[in-house]
Design brief:
mainly alpha, D-Maltodextrin-Binding Protein, domain 2, three-stranded parallel beta sheet, 42% helix
């Protein structure tokens, strides 16, 4: 949101009252389309899709949209970079985790993957990748 935002967003459904920006093809785009637009709560003409999340943030900063939905890490990085923006809601839209599929019964590979993922998370590497590639 722009620092001047005076509305109220307590849950994700509250964005239906605003012009909403979102990156095309993301979880947020799917949720907005399948939930709010499909239910008629958000008018299609109030949903603005962008190729990149930074484009949506620039339009938010310049007042062309009222709110923007994205993953937290790029939103946080871009809000800090652009200034004059604030995150007013931080939560989860989908309950399912990201999945990696391996051959059934390959416990050694499973342990190796889990160890690597944990190490990358602990070192902040995954967050750094999100900032580098999604918060352009």
């Amino acid at each position: 949101m722009a620092d001047t935002f005076t509305g109220s967003i307590v849950n994700p459904e509250d964005v239906a009252n605003y012009k909403v920006g979102v990156q095309t093809g993301t979880t947020q785009d799917g949720w907005l389309t399948d939930t709010l637009v499909a239910d008629g709560a958000l008018l299609e003409e109030n949903l603005f899709r962008y190729d990149r999340v930074d484009q949506a943030m620039v339009d938010l900063k310049n007042g062309r949209i009222d709110v923007m939905m994205s993953d937290y890490v790029p939103a946080q990085a871009l809000a800090a970079q652009l200034g004059g923006l604030k995150i007013v809601y931080h939560g989860v839209l989908s309950s399912g985790p990201v999945n990696i599929v391996i051959p059934e019964g390959d416990k050694e590979l499973q342990r190796a993957i889990n160890d690597i993922i944990k190490q990358l998370q602990d070192e902040g590497f995954i967050d750094a990748l999100a900032v580098k590639y999604f918060a352009q």
